[in-house]
């Protein structure tokens, strides 16, 4: 280990004062991390078991040459700290932790390894996977080599934290607080969305500024979504095993820091500019009315298991930061499938996550979080539980509890599938919604009873715990799995490009190639594939709950059958801005559905349907119909062969109120889904002589129909595997200046619903 100024050794006789051209003061234990002010920079880092902690400083111009090594002489409440007067922004830094090397007891202190500050706000550099990055001799053939300390200096090969000035002019910006039930989420990738967008300047493509570019924002506004959910932007590493194959970590689920925005997504620089660029992006998206939700990975880090590298927390205090096997502490509990699990039952690890969440809300102005493998965070000593420390702490926090909280409610450990089990305040990725609607449209479902729950917000999962339909984040596809187009182009995954002989990725997808595996010139198959995409988009956007559209599904993006494109940082994963006519039509169909949902509150109710007659008006808020046009019977619900279902959504019967206490009213809609592979005669309900239904959506065609009316009490032929939406055609409803429907209960509506229920 070499250094220019051996200040750390001089401090043995003189702990503080001036050492040649730099001065050292005791500093403060809080806040953790590097905190800059015009007077200098304070450094504070937690380690319960370290016996000594060194601060290493590197100049901006020579980031791989250690300029100063300073012993942090103060430890307060297990936090090591010091203050360097007049230290400017732009300096790179890291720590070296001294202590016991005893892997069998979970202690991995190795001062030869430079460690990233878990609280650093910005990271510079790229990890070079030199053997020195590992705490043990990686080239050894000994199967127990992880028990031996490696003495090579890792500093020249590892990324560093950056001292930054966090002040920023937000110009009055604040969180948008869009009500959850009015939210439409767009799950997207910062780089992937703009990398091929020719309207974005080349330098800005694939960056935060590219996402904030006017052309990108215009597209998102045109689509009609209200929030972007960004795949991981916490700084993450490029895995060595992927680099060896010529691949890259594209998804980013391999965090190196919980505070620093990923530097590769910045067009402006890495010396703190990435933080400013991220803030600029949030501010511009907010001005356009778009919320920013972060997909966050707190359940594990890039340090992996006992054979993994030493980058940060493993070397600072392995036992405090990670879940270790009780009777074999050289090994890690792995509830995530990535090698390690962050130790959320330790107060300092919990503090790290909570401090990170508050930082992104208060300093970066994000509007919410989607927690990757949230069940791993909610585990107590073993089980996932509502009363876990993490969930309790979130619930009582006055800042974090007020933003959008979305759980991916599963992990890979025992009992990890927890859909429906998270407490009030939380929404969840509803995996049961995904599976139910996929099974229905593939005609794999056993009847329609489960589909009915999913269409109405999954009350079977959420109502008894006091939650509402917005607890259900409805999705058909996500980044992990087939795209919507591929869902109906492939029976099997085709992940050969990932270099794992197609072993990776989920094999049970409820997908259907519609007759031919992969691309085809057959016009009938292509028409069927387009219809199936329309079916899923219409189902998603007309269901109660919060819809999540995956980037590119709105135009039919393909990944060529790859359902695990985590390492495909190339056009396989990127958004293609050059569309065919068919793709343009699908986009138009999608945006009109989003608009239809937005303009009609009956499709985004705050409360669950009650399904019973309202006492003073004799109007039910929802009625289920069989193909005869009459109310579903118990036998209908129990029939596993029934795959067509009608649903009347009665906007006149809503018991909901706006922010001023005014009753919310809407039109009356009839939604019909036919999952059969053949056409079905469906009798439109109502009184023939005066009930008319106006068709709004017909997925059997590639256009949303305009001005088509149909008489009640007549058979309507449902196309094979098709969805239809009708609106009861009344005299034009008067609306207030605010656009709210006036109370206009008419005899026609009363007679219609009475007739159906009789």
Automatic annotation (TrEMBL):
One of its GO terms (molecular function) is amylo-alpha-1,6-glucosidase activity. Gene3D superfamilies: Glycosidases (3.20.20.80), Golgi alpha-mannosidase II (2.60.40.1180), Immunoglobulins (2.60.40.10). Its EC number is 3.2.1.-. The keyword Hydrolase applies. NCBIfam families: glgX_debranch (TIGR02100). Belongs to the glycosyl hydrolase 13 family. It is an enzyme of class 3 (hydrolase). Residues 495-520 are annotated as: Disordered. Residues 191-597 form the Glycosyl hydrolase family 13 catalytic domain. It comes from Neolewinella aquimaris. The keyword Hydrolase applies. One of its GO terms (biological process) is glycogen catabolic process. Residues 495-507 have a biased composition (Basic and acidic residues). It comes from the Bacteria. Keywords: Glycosidase, Hydrolase. This is Glycogen operon protein.
């Amino acid at each position: 280990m070499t250094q220019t100024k051996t200040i750390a050794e001089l401090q043995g006789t003189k702990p503080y004062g001036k050492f040649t051209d730099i001065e050292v003061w005791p500093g403060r234990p809080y806040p953790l991390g590097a905190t800059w002010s015009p007077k200098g920079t304070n450094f504070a880092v937690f380690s319960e078991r370290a016996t000594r902690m060194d601060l290493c400083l590197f100049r901006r111009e020579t980031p791989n040459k250690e300029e100063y090594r300073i012993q942090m002489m103060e430890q307060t409440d297990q936090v090591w700290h010091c203050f360097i007067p007049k230290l400017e922004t732009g300096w790179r830094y890291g720590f070296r932790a001294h202590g016991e090397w005893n892997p069998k007891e979970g202690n991995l202190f190795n001062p030869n390894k430079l460690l990233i500050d878990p609280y650093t706000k910005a990271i510079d550099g790229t990890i070079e996977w030199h053997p020195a990055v590992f705490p043990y001799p990686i080239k050894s053939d000994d199967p127990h080599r992880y028990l031996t300390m490696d003495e090579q200096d890792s500093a020249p090969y590892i990324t560093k934290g950056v001292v930054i000035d966090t002040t920023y002019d937000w110009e009055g910006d604040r969180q948008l607080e869009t009500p959850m039930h009015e939210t439409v989420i767009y799950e997207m990738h910062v780089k992937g969305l703009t990398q091929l967008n020719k309207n974005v300047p080349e330098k800005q493509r694939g960056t935060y500024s590219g996402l904030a570019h006017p052309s990108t924002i215009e597209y998102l506004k045109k689509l009609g979504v209200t929030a972007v959910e960004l795949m991981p932007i916490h700084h993450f590493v490029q895995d060595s095993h992927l680099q060896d194959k010529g691949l890259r970590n594209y998804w980013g689920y391999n965090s190196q820091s919980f505070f620093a925005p990923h530097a590769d997504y910045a067009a402006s620089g890495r010396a703190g500019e990435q933080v400013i660029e991220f803030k600029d992006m949030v501010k511009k998206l907010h001005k356009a009315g778009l919320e920013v939700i972060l997909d966050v990975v707190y359940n594990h880090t890039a340090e992996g298991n006992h054979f993994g590298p030493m980058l940060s927390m493993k070397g600072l205090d392995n036992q405090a930061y990670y879940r270790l096997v009780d009777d074999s502490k050289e090994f890690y509990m792995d509830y995530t499938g990535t090698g390690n699990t962050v130790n959320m039952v330790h107060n300092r690890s919990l503090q790290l996550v909570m401090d990170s969440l508050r930082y992104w809300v208060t300093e970066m102005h994000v509007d919410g979080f989607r927690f990757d493998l949230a069940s791993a965070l909610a585990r107590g000593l073993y089980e996932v539980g509502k009363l876990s420390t993490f969930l309790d702490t979130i619930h009582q926090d006055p800042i974090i509890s007020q933003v959008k909280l979305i759980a991916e409610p599963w992990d890979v450990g025992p009992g990890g599938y927890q859909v429906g089990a998270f407490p009030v305040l939380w929404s969840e990725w509803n995996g049961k919604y995904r599976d139910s609607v996929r099974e229905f449209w593939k005609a794999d479902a056993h009847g329609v009873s489960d589909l009915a729950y999913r269409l109405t917000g999954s009350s079977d999962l959420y109502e008894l715990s006091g939650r509402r339909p917005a607890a259900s984040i409805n999705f058909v596809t996500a980044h992990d799995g087939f795209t919507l187009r591929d869902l109906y182009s492939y029976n099997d995954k085709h992940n050969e490009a990932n270099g794992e002989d197609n072993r990776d990725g989920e094999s049970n997808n409820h997908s259907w190639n519609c007759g031919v595996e992969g691309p085809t010139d057959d016009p009938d198959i292509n028409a069927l594939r387009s219809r199936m995409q329309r079916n899923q988009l219409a189902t998603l956007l007309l269901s109660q709950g919060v819809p999540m559209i995956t980037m590119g599904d709105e135009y039919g993006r393909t990944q060529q059958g790859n359902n695990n494109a985590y390492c495909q940082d190339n056009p396989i994963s990127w958004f293609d801005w050059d569309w065919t006519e068919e793709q343009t039509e699908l986009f138009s169909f999608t945006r009109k559905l989003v608009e239809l949902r937005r303009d009609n509150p009956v499709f985004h109710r705050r409360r669950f349907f009650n399904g019973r007659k309202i006492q003073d008006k004799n109007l039910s808020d929802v009625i289920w119909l069989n193909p005869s046009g009459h109310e579903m019977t118990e036998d209908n619900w129990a029939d596993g062969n029934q795959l067509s279902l009608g649903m009347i959504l009665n906007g006149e019967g809503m018991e909901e109120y706006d922010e001023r206490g005014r009753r919310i009213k809407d039109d009356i809609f009839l939604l019909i889904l036919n999952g059969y592979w053949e056409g079905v005669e469906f009798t439109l309900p109502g009184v023939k002589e005066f009930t008319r239904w106006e068709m709004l959506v017909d997925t059997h065609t590639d256009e949303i129909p305009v001005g088509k009316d149909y008489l009640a009490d007549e058979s309507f032929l449902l196309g094979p595997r098709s969805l239809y939406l009708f609106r009861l055609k009344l005299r034009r409803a008067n609306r207030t200046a605010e656009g709210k429907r006036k109370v206009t209960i008419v005899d026609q509506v009363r007679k219609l619903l009475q007739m159906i229920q009789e």
